Amino acid sequence: DGGEYLCRAENQHGGSSVGFNVTVEYPPVLLPESRCTPAPEGARCVCSASAVPEPVVAFELPSHNVTVAEGHRDYALATPGGAGSGGPGAVTGVLTLRGTLEPRLAVLCVARNPHGSARGQLRFQHPGG
């Protein structure tokens, strides 16, 4: 229900109106493009989430007891709110995994904002299914 609203008041002496914008805030929701795919150096994992205010996204590798977030050399932040990124309030992080991957490696996508958090294990998508 967010968007532009108009408040109008009138009586026998005249009328007045004012426009205003309503922003609806909500906790993060993981987007379907979140997944891992093979890459020449190992794998490329994408964590996309939508929220208002914009979420902070990170990756967790429980078997290594590691969280990878902005500032890590293998983490890149895609353009927030850009075309194809899920629209306004959407943030996409990209993790590059290098070398041979463990057969049971679990990669979790985590998104947080002041209203809550979302977490999900990323699927490994291989070419041809």
Fold topology:
Layout: E1 3-11, E2 14-22, E3 26-30, E4 35-39, E5 42-52, E6 56-61, E7 66-68, E8 75-77, E9 90-98, E10 108-113, E11 116-121
Antiparallel strand pairs: 1-2, 3-5, 4-5, 5-9, 6-7, 6-10, 8-9, 10-11
Structure, explained:
This protein is mainly beta and 129 residues long. The chain has a single domain (25-121), classed as Immunoglobulin-like, CATH 2.60.40.10. It contains no helices and eleven strands. The chain has strands at 3-11, 14-22, 26-30, 35-39, 42-52, 56-61, 66-68, 75-77, 90-98, 108-113, 116-121. Strands 3, 4, 5, 8 and 9 form a five-stranded antiparallel beta sheet that branches. A four-stranded antiparallel beta sheet has the order 7-6-10-11, with no helix packed on it. β6 (56-61) and β7 form a beta hairpin. The radius of gyration is 20 Å and the shape is elongated. The relative contact order is 0.25. Residues 81-85 have low confidence and may be disordered.
The assigned CATH architecture is: Sandwich
**Mean model confidence by pLDDT:** 89
**Rg for CA atoms:** 20 Å
Total individual domains: 1
CATH class placement: Mainly Beta
User: Helical region count?
Assistant: 0
Could you describe the largest sheet, including whether it forms a barrel?
Answer: 5 strands, antiparallel
Series of H and E elements: EEEEEEEEEEE
Secondary-structure-derived class: mainly beta
Strand content: over 45%
Low-confidence stretches: 81-85
Organism: Xiphorhynchus elegans
Protein name: SMP protein
